[in-house]
């Protein structure tokens, strides 16, 4: 990633319409997501939380896409690795930590769901589940509703390359294509469906599948936050202009095991993992910002320190927060349960 | 008040709800220009336009999933499954998604969809155009399931389903579509979800059922009273989830002899749960073992006439079971 552009010395981020402050903010969210991930990993190993499913290696794609969307209007249907995404659209580290600890105050599910199952009506993050790719038709439904209501918004949905083999991906894409709906589908192709490598999942290119559904599909370097931002922004403009959906395939690598329950070295080598750490988006983007002269190692150290504090506070808060009441297990099966209408 | 067919009552309910609320829309295979393979949605696209009566691609999971997404945005979709036999690809969307959206989001999101699906045989539909799917979904928390037997209830329950804040499966009986006619008021009434309905009072036996078999039961009850003086207490569940427990208990206590009837397979059917409620709540009020009459435990149902007839319930089969119980 080079700082200097070819024309009139504009930086790359300026060329795609980002201010220096926005370019730095993107980095901040990437780092925040990474720090959250690292903290949850430690908490799980220390026995403080049961489970963590990681987004390490996905941050650039998630944050780049989020910044290209209208974070006041658009609807988001993230998948379980999208910490960088949900942080970028307004969820806080404390809220995510409340989910990790399964506490009552967790805005995602009130401590009912596993971590990584995001949801917040306030932030228009549509509640998600564990069966993969069910969210793709939901995103299409949101886009259909928006179109019916003549609202200028898009729905943005993510999933992994493993999930892209589910019927719901194909059914959702086809429906969106037929009705030219304002939906952006982003596949975070991290090369593994738990243990199954990409070449055993897919024989072609996922982005090429869009052709069969009648809309553009683009493959993008998912470790390049600015490039992801650029293609997502273009996709959003197309969607808002009534030109229909876009499929984005962000190429990246799952640097962590699938989850804290997975031993990835049972199916891939340390050398392969090490090789991919060299492409990690965080040092790469940090260097870019420093080369642009808008960021420094001192600022970076300061930010890391600040994040350590945020994680510490979030952890303490969530650890000390009460669990949901056992008897509330019965609530919210149907509307009005709290009034005894069960 | 107009005399109309069961299918017309369903159409009228959709028409009224769509006129009342812009958020209500219909989607499914062939529901648009054609008006559905059974004509259930005939004329709706003409009246409300293509945007509100959508012909979808042939993909049931998308029909359900897109409806769920639109419902979470604030719409009130009515998703049509052409036959309940074909709704299994949508089962993940219905059970993993629609049923759990309110619960898993701790009441933050909701999913007010209606999924309409024709059930039942006796139409030479063979194995995949005849099934009753209610037992597949029965027992899934977060779903309401209704199955009307009359034109009046079909309209009133569908209107209630559309207005319900949670997902409702509306199992309409395809054999009833044209066979059943009844008085249907043209006013804006609803039949509340969760309330059973006593169709006939009697003192000798209680028969509990839902959907098409009730017509056989009512004919048999009439004949048994005329011919043999056996009087029947007939309860229509109408809503099969959540069950109207009190109505079931009251009806069982009334005669102390209970027959439960459904076309769905015997094993795992709704009847087992109804029997369990009675056994738990009023066993000592019973004068006979609880009996069930249901479809045999074979895949429903062969297309050839003798085997279809063998599988299906009819007035005579029901009458035999009712008399037998009365004489116990």
UniProtKB/TrEMBL annotation, chain A:
Catalyzed chemical reaction(s): N(6)-[(R)-lipoyl]-L-lysyl-[protein] + 3-methyl-2-oxobutanoate + H(+) = N(6)-[(R)-S(8)-2-methylpropanoyldihydrolipoyl]-L-lysyl-[protein] + CO2
Gene Ontology process terms (BP): branched-chain amino acid catabolic process
Keyword tRNA processing: no
Native organism: Paenibacillus nuruki
Enzyme Commission code: 1.2.4.4
Transmembrane segments: none
Top EC class for this record: oxidoreductase
Similarity remark: Belongs to the BCKDHA family.
Taxonomic lineage of the native organism: Bacteria, Bacillati, Bacillota, Bacilli, Bacillales
GO molecular function: branched-chain 2-oxo acid dehydrogenase activity
UniProt protein name: 2-oxoisovalerate dehydrogenase subunit alpha
SUPFAM superfamilies for this protein: Thiamin diphosphate-binding fold (THDP-binding)
Keywords tagged on the record: Oxidoreductase, Thiamine pyrophosphate
UniProtKB/TrEMBL annotation, chain B:
SMART domains hit by this protein: Transket_pyr
Record-listed E.C. numbers: 1.2.4.1
Keyword terms: Oxidoreductase, Pyruvate, Thiamine pyrophosphate
Cofactors demanded by this protein: thiamine diphosphate
Alphabetized InterPro entries for the sequence: THDP-binding, Transketo_C/PFOR_II, Transketolase-like_Pyr-bd, Transketolase_C
Domain Transketolase-like pyrimidine-binding stretches: 4-179
EC primary class: oxidoreductase
Protein's name according to its UniProt entry: Pyruvate dehydrogenase (Acetyl-transferring)
Organism per entry: Paenibacillus nuruki
